[in-house]
Write a structure and sequence with these properties.
There is one protein chain. The protein folds into two domains: 2-59 and 158-335, Zn peptidases (Aminopeptidase, 3-Layer(aba) Sandwich), CATH 3.40.630; 63-142, Elongation Factor Tu (Ef-tu), domain 3, CATH 2.40.30. 31% of the residues lie in helices and 29% in strands. It is built from eight helices and 17 strands. The protein has helices spanning 2-5, 15-28, 159-178, 197-204, 246-262, 279-285, 316-331, 335-360, and strands at 31-35, 39-46, 53-58, 63-70, 73-79, 91-95, 101-111, 123-128, 139-142, 147-150, 153-156, 182-189, 213-221, 234-236, 269-271, 289-297, 312-315. The strands form three sheets. It has an eight-stranded mixed β-sheet, with helices on both faces. A six-stranded antiparallel β-barrel has the order 4-5-8-7-6-9. It has a three-stranded antiparallel β-sheet with strand order 10-11-17. The longest helix has 26 residues, at 335-360.
């Protein structure tokens, strides 16, 4: 967890995450390739005849990129979504193109210029510390905990969506260790935070296997009681725009229910999670049979209380629960059709019996 979520990243600047994923694949003998403009696929395949399961998370997180440097004054462009009320007076850490820290700066002014909404943060100006430097193209990321774990709670600058990526990598690790039959592809996309760019490119290029089941994996805001942190992985029914494949959602719920019946310690949730848009919308509307899963996220996009920036939070048990769910799903893709068919036949039988009882006046 710590190794992945600590990597500096931003939309269109995911190269350090890509490097870590390549190392992960090479160390486990898994196939690694880049598709559709730099999105990453890591593939596990053992045995034949298994329907491919694609587990997709995005590699970027909202952050600034340095646009200009004039002495100690730097101009920053923000890539991602957070309210323009955030930022002024906050501290940012500067990272070079090599991913190494260059120092820090204090934001002196913010604006909505370049943002998709007049209420969203678009850019800022900041003053570098005396011992700090910056170059055009550097990252400027919020100066909050990079990754600190207290009990079961992870406090990190960029849980969304690197913690989602961790859950997929953990599932792949479990498959490699067990040697279980299955066909699983970890899909890691670029530039989600600026409009699902990577997911749209992958879907348009038909870069995923024909007939694949696609599950978008996210960290999703728990604000407003949408979900309970520590309540287990969430089978996500939809998002603020769209409802995903009922067949896939039914199958995922059945798999989770069976896991819970075998192990009372396994918990799961089934929620809409309408706090934002997820990549499942892009995949589903562009022709893939799609579901979604997520974990409950605190301080979504680093938006803490009272308009102050804060570390995001996730629960380690939820991350582990997602990995367990994904591993079981990978072994069970053949049942997507049968779970739905069994439910259909059951309700047809109920319908026949209901017609008989109504006619008989019971």
């Amino acid at each position: 967890m710590r190794q992945i979520v600590s990597i500096p990243t931003a939309s269109f600047r995911e190269e350090h995450v890509v490097a870590a994923l390549r190392t992960f694949a090479e160390e486990r003998g898994l196939a690694f390739r880049e598709v559709a403009g730099g999105n990453v696929l890591i593939e596990y395949r053992k045995g034949r005849g298994r329907r491919p399961l694609v587990l997709g998370a995005h590699m970027d997180h909202p952050g600034f990129i340095v646009q200009a440097v004039r002495g100690k004054r730097i101009t920053l462009a923000f890539r991602g979504g957070i309210g323009v009320a955030y930022g002024k007076g906050e501290r940012v850490r500067i990272y070079g193109a090599d991913g190494e820290a260059r120092g820090a700066a204090t934001i002196t002014a913010v604006s909505n210029e370049g943002a998709r909404s007049p209420l969203a943060l678009g850019g800022a100006t900041a003053t570098l510390d005396a011992d700090s430097t910056a170059e055009v193209g550097d990252y400027a990321l919020w100066d909050v905990d990079v990754c600190r774990i207290r009990g079961q709670i992870v406090h990190a600058r960029q849980c969304d969506d690197l913690a989602g990526a961790v859950s997929i990598l953990a599932a792949l690790d479990r498959m490699v260790a067990s040697g279980a039959p299955g066909h699983v592809l970890g899909l890691f996309t670029r530039a989600e935070e600026v409009g699902l760019v990577g997911a749209a490119a992958v879907a348009r290029a038909h870069a995923l296997p024909e007939g694949a089941l696609v599950v978008a994996v996210e960290c999703s805001s728990m604000a407003g009681g949408r979900a309970v942190q520590g309540g287990g992985p969430i089978i996500r029914v939809g998002d603020v725009q769209h409802i995903f494949s009922p067949r896939v959602t039914m199958w995922m719920t059945q798999v989770a229910r069976e896991l819970a019946s075998e192990d009372p310690a396994f918990k799961y949730q089934r929620k809409l999670m309408d706090g934002g848009t997820t990549e499942a919308t892009a995949y589903d509307l562009m022709g893939y049979e799609t579901g979604a899963a997520c974990m409950a996220l605190g301080n979504y996009h680093n938006a803490g209380p009272r308009d102050r920036v804060a570390a995001e939070t996730v629960h380690l048990g939820d991350v582990e629960g997602l990995a367990r769910l994904f591993e079981r799903m990978a072994r069970d893709t053949r049942r997507v059709d049968s779970v739905h068919l069994d439910a259909t036949r059951r309700w047809q039988g109920i319908g026949r019996e209901a017609a008989r009882r109504l006619k008989a006046g019971e």
